[in-house]
Amino acid sequence: MKRSLSVLLILLISVLLMSVCAEKAPKGPQSVTVNGVRINYVEQGTGDEVIIFVHGYSGALGNWKYVLGLLPKEYHVYALDLRGFGQSENPGSYKLTENVEDIYAFSRELGVERFTYVGHSLGGKIGYKFALDHPDVLKAMFLIAPAPAHDFIPPEQRAAFIGQITSVFGSQDMLRGFIAEDFATPPSEEDINEFINDVMAGDPAAKEECAAWWVSTNLEPQLGNILVPTFIVVGAKDRLPLDWERRYASAIKGCRFEVIEDAGHMVQYDSPERLIDLLTSFIKDVSQE
User: Fold this and answer.
1) Strand order in 37-44's β-sheet?
2) Does residue 10 have a pLDDT over 50?
3) pLDDT of residue 27
4) Phi, psi of 118 (to 5 degrees)
5) Based on the number of CB atoms within 10 Å of its own CB, is 156 exposed (0-12), middle (13-18) or buried (19 or more)?
6) What's the mean pLDDT in 68-72?
7) H or E segment and range at residue 6
8) What is residue 42's three-state secondary structure?
9) Rounded to whole angstroms, how far apart are CA atoms 84 and 86?
10) Where along the chain do its domains lie?
11) Domain 30-288 adopts which CATH fold?
C-alpha cells in the first residue's frame, strides 16, 4: 500500500513538473496563413499582456532569441518572420502595406485583440505605418533603432543604393564584414553564423523590394498623427544618425526616447537586459494610464 502511494505521489509530482515546464518553455515554430501567405512564428508565455515582435531588414524571428529568453512568462509573446524572410513563404510581392496587413491579419487570426508592437530597424518603419493604419489594435509601440521614417536617399541615387544593399545581403562574405559594424560588442561566431543563415534564407526579391520602399517612402510628415503610446530606443553606436531618431520621437506626441550607450544597431544583442527593463516598465506604465 505504501509503495503504491509512493508511486502515485511520484507520478503526480512528475505531471506537475511537466506542466510547469511546458508553461515556461516557448512553443516550437508554428505557421498560420494570412492574406494567402504562410507566416512562420513562435509563441511563448500565457499572460494577458500580448507582444508581437517584428524583425528588421533581411532578419528573422531568431534575432529576438536573447530578448525572448529574458521575458517573464506573464507576457504572451509572438515573434514572426515577415513574408519572404526566415521560414515564411515567398509570395513574390513585398510592399510596405502588405507587411502591415500581414501583421494585422496575423493578430486577428490568432485572436489577439490588442497588443504591444515591438519592431527593430525595418520592423520599426513598418511599425510607424501600422500605428497610422491600425491604431485601434495597438496598446503601445516600442521601436528599436527604427529605420529612417523619411526618404533619406535622393531619387537619382536610389537604384545604386538598392543594388549595393542587395549585393551585400546576398553574399555571405560581404555580409560578414558589413554586419560586424552593427554590434557594439563583438558577437559570438555562433551568433554571426545564425544571423548570416537567416539573411541568406530570405527571398532576393524581398530584399530588393523592401530596400526600395525603405529608402523611398516618406512617413515623417505623418508621424504627428500617431496617437499610440510610443517608445523609441536606439544604440549610441548605431551607424544611423541619432539626430534623425530624436526628430522622429519629437514628432510623435508623448513619445519616450532613450539612447543606450553600450549598444549599436543590434540593440537586442548588445543590451537585451536593458531592453527588457525598458519594455516591461513601459508596458506597465501604459497599463496604468
Assistant:
1) 30-34, 37-44, 75-80, 49-54, 115-120, 138-144, 230-235, 256-260
2) no
3) 64
4) -120, 120
5) exposed
6) 96
7) helix 2-24
8) strand
9) 7
10) 30-288
11) Rossmann fold (3.40.50)
